[in-house]
Amino acid sequence: QNLLQSPCKLLCGSSSTSISQPQHSPNSFIVYSYPSLCDSIPNSILQFSHLFPENMPLSSIIFHKLFLYFLLGTTFLMLNLSYFQYLSLDDPKLTAYGSGVHKNDSGQKEMTKFPSRDQIVQSIRDCTAKGHEYDVLVIGLGVTGAGVALDAQTRNLSVIAVDQDDFSSGTSSRSTKLLHGGVRYLKKAMIHPQSSWSQFKLVREALHERWVIFQQSAHLTNSIRIVAPVYSWKELIFTWVQMKLYDWISFPHIHSSYYISKDTLLELYPHLSTKADEFGQKVMGAVCYFDGQMDDSRLNLAIAQTAILNGAHILNYARVVDVVHDPNGRANGAILEDKETGERIQIRAKQILIAAGAFADEVRKMDSKEAKKMLVTACGAHIVLDRKYAGSQANDGFLITKTTDKRVLFVLPWQGYTLVGTTDSKCGVTNNPRPSEKEIAYLIQHVNAYFNPENQITRRDVLSAWSGIRPLKKADDERETATISREHAIYTAKDTQIKSIVGGKWTTYRRMAQEVVDQMIAEGHFNSTLKGQFVKARTEKIQLHGQKEYNPEYAKELSTHYHIPYDVAHHLNEAYGDHAEFVLQLAEETDSKVRLIPIEKGVKRPHPYLEAEVIYTIRNEYALHPIDFLERRIRLSMLDAKAAKKALDRVIDIFAKERKWDQDRKEREMKTARGLLQISTEKIEKVEVQNAT
Questions:
Q1: Predicted confidence band at 43 (pLDDT cuts at 50, 70, 90)?
Q2: DSSP letter (8 states) at residue 544
Q3: How is residue 339 annotated by DSSP?
Q4: What does the alpha-carbon distance between residue 632 and residue 637 come to, in Å, rounded to a whole number?
Q5: What percent of the chain shows pLDDT beyond 70?
Q6: What are the b/e assignments for 351-381, b being 16+ CB within 10 Å?
Q7: pTM of the model
Q8: Beta bridge partners of 179
Q9: Which residues lie across from 425 on neighbouring strands?
Q10: Is 468 helix (H, G, I), strand (E, B) or coil?
Q11: Cα–Cα distance between 379 and 118 in angstroms, integer?
Q12: Which of 588, 675, 585 is nearest to 626 (CA)?
């Protein structure tokens, strides 16, 4: 009956109004009705007077007021029709799953066979010897480069893609792990008229791509509920309208956003402070909304592997040392150096694309020393804490909106831990950026501002800290990097015709790749290959490696059949998808079905990684160095740096056996890996020594 009443009556019902709670599964939750609202809302809030600067033209104010009233009325109506209901937290991404294990065309279980790295190098040699000209050379194998390689290869173009380091070794493995449209960008669209359309378009595009990635790689993605605490009626109304708009433009969306009371909020986050903030306001409830999450480096790897399965020549640890030009000055090839062997190969390509992220300017200067800088780089630091600092439910995180630099921070659950990020400050370009103590202190300070005194975090609670460099397209004026648009840009060098793609968001990688390949085809670079036809992108419907037969329930069968703990089976199922069973088959064949880090006495939550995973990633996922495995095949060094150091000796022993290293090579690899892990653990160990003293 309540749902049939007017929006105002439903919204403004007495605070005693509630919805009875029938039996429901642990994966469901109830949305309670609001306390009395209408009598308490100040008139100034309904007029939205606080949103518009004094010098804004009257016509703009009228337009935006009408727009906001429309949004408010629409969201009230949506609430009236459908939002007091149970919302399932069960996985909404796919209507049907596979059997759990990959099968061949005959329906038999069969592992996908990838060419070895040596075989790929030999194929490149053979193509060069025969005078073959690739259609596209992609420089960089972060998510954008891998996405371009997959898009172009599936349009019947021949692709070679290289990276001077490992897959996703730069920014693509150091994100905040969100697949999202960006609530911050939507807020900009609502309150800054001059940028409203571009920001709105960016959010809408990203939300569509979020859904595409869910369909392509369900085993590496999941949905999460994010809670945004509110401290005043003004903040509640604005946040609620913002999240309803976020729902509306994210079609199909994950779940609908809704309001929860202060009591419900404290049940979910008992460590949140109830004291007044700096403006004398106390938390009065929260608005919950839903977004996506991913394992970024493994998703990047899956994109590259899918490109390889479609015939692309993909090579990590191979750098471009020089660009080759024809007599007219147009770039038509490059000299590649295999960093593992030192061998150099000259290849020919009709089109070269630089997708090198933060290193794009450096690569462009290799082609032309007069190339102008087109990037602004910003560092985003993250810290990892114990799981208890996220919400009481497994897939709950919360949003920090009150920060000194007016950006937002996320406190998110991630692989059994709590991820906090991110900062946004200008920085230089380096291979292995490290977060400064100032950035770590900034994150701790803002988290503590939301926590009660009994749950304050300190530097010693930080299990790992790392930083990623965002490559942002250069603005026309100097400004803070947090205000620079996350839209991407495609540049073409006037003389050499080398293209560069910069900026953008992780979530929109596929759309960026599609746009740049569309542009290449439209310019006629591949007329001989495509016979003058325009071939449309096919990546929206492609399933990435590991997805085809993935089933989230298959972990139970793995646990039972292979006699392994459920936490191990669940990890394998989520990390390797329909190839998890082949990891366990390899474990039995190689007698490596044991935990990489033995369970120590008193440890409540052991790490789920197996020694067999080291072997599997070397043989099937192009892991060439221990840090490739510890940081990007599994995420241990990013989750718990001290645990990664414990595992290092055993990982190097397995690498040495698989790759036939001598003692000298083992010592070099140990030194390199320890140096990289030291970035995350140095300060932690100093703090522990000081406390012990």
A1: very low
A2: P
A3: T
A4: 9
A5: 81
A6: bbbbbbbbbbbebbebbbeebeebbbbbbbb
A7: 0.85
A8: 292
A9: 379
A10: strand
A11: 35
A12: 675
